[in-house]
Specification:
alpha/beta; seven-stranded mixed beta sheet; 9 strands
Length: about 190
Amino acid sequence: MNAKGDTTWLNWTQYADHGPSESVLGPVAGRRVLELGSGSGSNLAHLVTLGATGQGVDIAPARETVARQRWGDLPGLEFRTAEATAFLSETDETFDVVLSIFGAVWFVDPDTLLPLIRSRMTPGGILAFSHLAPGSEGPKPAKAGLRHDRTPGEWERILTGHGFSDVRVSLIDPPEGRAEGTMLVRALAV
């Protein structure tokens, strides 16, 4: 339960109860949602409680186990252990919404990942992702692998080059007393 008393919620930032809601995605009821880097499944579970159907993909088997234990009884929600590019290359499913919160979009080369994401999206679908605000112009090592930090302008150029439009990038300030902000990117599949 969060500070507002909600049992499910979507959290774009690294801070609890901070940042915008799922409204970034527009209405999700009746839409098929894919989360790349679904972790414990909480963000995707929230969207399913709002009427979406969801597929969560995470590279870590332990994360799938946790997600299934916590959310496995929620109808319309599936979890799978897979690397994002492998999953996208192998599936024939299409999605209305693809999201990645501190997930695959941050850790996989965008010139490899974004064309695969776009190929599995319905026209007019929404891609939204968040990660730490960029600290450099290029990839840099992190505990989970290579991070692909990009500036807002770079994300706009990369996304439009891979079949997305209406790219919107916002920087979410951290809560008081914290130093790191969050970048939130939203784009439409052309």
